[in-house]
Fold each of these.
Amino acid sequence: MSDHYEENEGRLPGPESHPRGRGETAIIYPVLSRRARGLSLGINLFPDRKQCTYDCPYCEVRPFSAPGARMRPGMVEAGLRAFFAHEWRMYSEQFELRDISVSGNGEPTLSPFLEEALEAAHRVLQDLAGANPYFAGVPIVLITNSSGFLRPDICEMLERFSQRARLEVWAKLDGGSPAMHRILSGSEFAYGRIVDAIAGFAVRVPIKLQTMLCRDSRSGRILFDAEGYLATLQSLVQRKARIGAIQLYTVARPPAEPWIAGLDDAELLTIAGRVRAALPAGIGVECFGRTGHIE
Ligand code: SF4
């Protein structure tokens, strides 16, 4: 999903607005991340065109096509190794690496290269940790819109991987009701099915939930059913879903649809307060406005 790009504060090369080259280097991109709070190294599994199960009106992946940029076996590992060999020294003077993130121009669970990418990131981090133990603690983050949890093969692969690597799964949960979810996902995936799929996965592997908060500027309506959202969270908790944190965020860059507008910090903090009050103390609620973390 595109949310990884949405975080880019514009000071580093983004994957589509600033192509980083061809071949391996086109799929590896450093991002200053609001939510990772530092440098996140992205792996874009869709360098040729956007592929997603959703069509979110707030999506920040621009329509584009680079048919020459095809994924090939071995490409992710080659790209990561090239980055650390040739570029990392420059970045490391200013930033700590907070994570390696599998995201990019679409929904990564659609890619036949997902497992290979996770394994490549794990191998590269292990090798780097031989010289610098810091890298052993760097997580590999999968940013998903949650529709992949409907696929047992994806869930099993992620569970296996999580048992031997430092995997974090950041999963989208938008809207809080079937009607709002339909608007915000631009899809016919039933809200209840997605929630059930999140619950089924999160009892096996811990997740962070990510929720977009925005408004329809034509009506002024916030596209969020707060009551429904809180009820959904409580049902996930009752079902023993392992939710480490909830990240509430708003639009930070131009969205796909011009009628989508971001919320201001005060609106976000009001919603965050309600969410926090409805949850057990162990689940953190983080809030990200247009320019970064707010509290
Ligand atoms: S999940 Fe939504 S925001 Fe993410 S890439 Fe797909 S359409 Fe865009």
Note: Confidence is low (pLDDT under 50) at residues 5-11, 13-19.
Amino acid sequence: MKKRITAPREVLHELQQDYFICTKCKICQAVHVQFCTESRFWRNCPSGTRFRWDAYYASGKMEIARGLHIHEIEPSESLRHILYTCMLCSSCQEQCWEVKQLHPTRVFELMREKAVREGWGPMPEHEPLRESLEKNDNPFGVEARKRGEWAKGLQAKHLPKEKAEALFFAGDAYSTDPALFPAVRAAFRALQLGGMDLGILGAKEKSDGALMLLLGDRDFFETFAFDNLETFNGLGVKTIVTPDAHAAWAFKEEYARELNPEIKVRHISEVLDRMIRKGELKPAKEVPLKVVYHDPCKLGRRFDIYEPPRRVLRSIPGLELLEFPRATFNSLCCGGGGGVPYAFPDYALWTARERLYEAEWTGAEAVVTSCPYCLQMFRKAVEATGSPLKVYDLAEPLLMSLGEEV
Ligand code: SF4
Ligand code: SF4
């Protein structure tokens, strides 16, 4: 039997102090308003705001966790809807932690794990993701042999046949959605220009499993984590760098304890920021663009990666960086969190449109982010609304300023 990377597991009842202590103060139902001057943008919870019942806010789900614990309620269709419309964006936890030091988002993650263990989660609409992972090693129905196609013509070293100091891990979305290929190519190219000795796994790259973890299927997640750890630890690399915020989250939070301690995991925004500060990358060409930066939940609230991407953008001559009213720890989810878009695409799009409206409100010409799922959601919202806003990955305006196109 394969070793478990997260044994002993944390289970829902271990957080009972959190859901029994929740006082229904509902502080978790708005952003930190002292840092958001516009009351139009005070709401923070997509599921509560959209479905308008307390059960869809963190306070309601904490009560559901308590009810499940004491067998006061049983799993039902509506309970499953409540649980799987949560974006797991951690905004409620951001608010609650300041005053109560509770972990509502962690409770909901563990509720999903309980749902999967007991057979009432995830949603039936999530099944194709699982089937594709079994068949293709990615959740999005693309044949495994096509996974390295994004890198065609980039003269990338191929690990493990060749050796490199760093592994560039493209991730599930960047390597399977052709609309994201320019973004991931820009990311790879910017690192190369900064002098990083990079290699890729190409078609041999496998899913990080992060999506299964979001859906609550820790067993399935661990099969991918185990295989990847074996691969990573045998590559002889010193760094794993990824442009995928969800992969970075899985590696930093879940893989880290079994990863060779010599290997550092970095999200690309951290590496690009460092390269610019050390003078290894010198953005010189003017990029006359007003942009607003959207903080991906898995980078910002999870790892406090707020400043590195902003410093990258500020280093670009001619570029003006604006801020959302809901920025950094107050950031609203793009609608791509928690595996929601695959089961509830209309609601996910509703959330993305809300965020896009906020981006337009700032007067920006483009929204920039550093997560493939945010990019996908913003592009869907632009398509649905006919918004004139452009949507860029962080690496794209940087590469423009370095005088290259991909
Ligand atoms: S989760 Fe925290 S902030 Fe929300 S109602 Fe409960 S105690 Fe209050
Ligand atoms: S994690 Fe996000 S969507 Fe879920 S209850 Fe908290 S704020 Fe709402």
Note: Residues 22-28, 58-59, 62, 95-96, 100, 102, 104 surround iron/sulfur cluster (ligand 1) (CB under 6 Å).
Amino acid sequence: MSDRTIKASWVLDGTQETALANQSIVIDGGKIASMEQGAGDGLLVMPPLANAHDHARVARLSQVGSYDVPLEAWLPYLTLIPAVDPYLASAVSFGRTARGGVGSVMAHYTRVQGLTDFPTEAKAVAKAARDVGIRMALAVHCRDMNPLVYDAHDALLADLSPAACECVTRRFLRNPVPAAEQVAMVEAVAAEIEGNGVTVQYGPAGVQWCTDTMLRLIGESSARTNRRVHMHLLETKYQRNWADRNFPQGIVKYLDEIGLVNERVSFAHCIYLRPDEMELIAERGATIVVNTSSNFIVSSGVAPIAEFIKRGCRVAMGLDGLAFDEDEDALREMRLAYAVHKGSGFDVKFPRPDLMRFATANGRFAVTGESGSQVAPGSPADMLLLDWKELSAELIEPDVPPFDMVLAKGKQSHVKGLIINGRDVVRDGAVTGVDLPAMEAELLATMRKAYPTTADVRAAMPELKGALRKHYAGQFYCG
Ligand SMILES: [Zn+2]
């Protein structure tokens, strides 16, 4: 096998804040064979970023008129996105993810296109990830209760006009597939698609959306098979309210009792965790995935990262399909998370080494179950190559630390390359495995063409949104 050498002007190896200057990194197959002093060629090399909570969605909020809608009212808007070919949708999503500097992604597959049976769709998603070349965990969505709100929906339906009620009933209130069947499906899909960069996880939507039967089954199966689990937890104050009413012993204690708080599990959001719950999560070694942009955009709140870190929780970064500028810029997401959570004055709440792990290793662990994500001899040849010439073009002081420059201004336009398992996934800023611009154009045309198929739900949406606001706005919340 032929070796190749990356000439890095700087290397952030993922374990320290200080960068190593002028390194020749030799790649042999899927591994980094050696790294030694050499001549740099204008690249800053660091571990790829990880997006540990995403949904492989392709439509941006503003595309379907759902910008600035709180989460509980926003979720039904997803129905406005027409079903499209799952390979096309996933290839676009993973291609954009790679272009944004991400090497491992959690695809919590909450939106099934449904044009074929699910195992066929899952194969298409796995093929898209492999064609693009990033590491992907397909967290298979499991859900069997509370289709509309977190409690009974009778009163809400009674508030709607007959036409809107008919549409909402038809679109949202289908009988769920029995829990045991959904759980068995995960194993069947895993047997078909796992391997070669793709893994399968259990993806229960969240405690408010899954019966006790389903969650227990997942806890038992995960313990037996070692399969990882990814789920939403306490994303909004309304979910906290629901959890406190339904689990007097505490929702995290409940999850722990049924085998769903451990190293195999990652929880997205966790904005409304209490200190004792953070401690339990830290003790058990589960991962918390914070989605800073998403939390702002769908009005969920601000996650207490400093409190998580203080208690020793493993915290990872997610984009949740809702990056701040409606792109997939993971470098900007890292900057935003740092700016929001670093603390005030000289009181440092988000130390740089924690930030690096947050953006890289911790998310990679949540996705792949493998620890270690460093640019070092013997490690997998996974590297993000940034344009140091561009990043440093305006420097006056020549010795500004490279990590400062990444944090100050790094964005996806600085992504020159992404190497995963020794393969060029992004080269000269372009995705190599699929024709992303052509597929994006095809997808947009397909969605525009299919948009009339969602006219019924679009017509019902203003009423539904109003009814949801009424349902939640009056709820008592004890913060
Ligand atoms: Zn999510």
Note: Residues 48-370+441-473 form a domain with the TIM Barrel fold (CATH 3.20.20.140).
Amino acid sequence: MKIGFPNHPRKNIIKEIDWIAKNGFDFVDLFFEEDKAIPEKIDVRKVKKLLKKYNLGTVGHLAWYLPIGSPIKSLRKAAISEACKYFPLFKQLGAEFVTVHSHWSPDLFSFEEGTKFQIESLKELVKKAKNFSLGLMYEPIDTPQDTIESVCRILNSIPQIFFHLDLGHLILFGKEPIEFIEKFHQKLKHIHLHDNFGNSDLHLPMGTGIIDWEKTLKILKTYYDGTITLEIFSRDKDYVLLSKEKLRKLWDKV
Ligand SMILES: [Zn+2]
């Protein structure tokens, strides 16, 4: 199992990667989005050199607010072409997989329509990513529409897509991450780890919310030994480092 951390897309990417490397992470979850981590502003040569120096791996991550499920066709098209600007960059920086997030149309559109819009965009994105030898991963976000049923519909409709399990998102509104692990482990390619109290997407340090980590990791470990990103947004990074220690210890124990 490998532990990573994301760069903050609104901060200097070189400084961000430097911190990640110096604090013993295995990889960077490349959060490439507005306003500092965009193709026009990233010095690929410099970033590549830094990753090599510290022997850091990478995973790609597109903006969570890309409107791939918009009811407006031209916005879906724009979301696809925006995503495509980042694929060459991820490839050059050694990523093999890229995350794209669920996106739901307003509730005057049905579940059928909401999933159909996403499926159309995702099919196109899978093809475009493949041109850069990148696999696409689908990450459900923090809405009540992100359910076992919706993930099932998306994954079954697009055989080439992988599953990105965000443990914090999938404990919200009475959901249970373990059910998602049991159901989709064959498609599972990447994990985001953070905690909350079940009603708001707080991105808290591990153990400060309601997730039963021992039980969850024990089940996860029976199916999975890949990359886990600590998607913890505390201002004081000591909490991130403490979560890293706790995760490693618990993973070894369960
Ligand atoms: Zn996430």
Note: DSSP finds nine helices and eight strands in the chain.
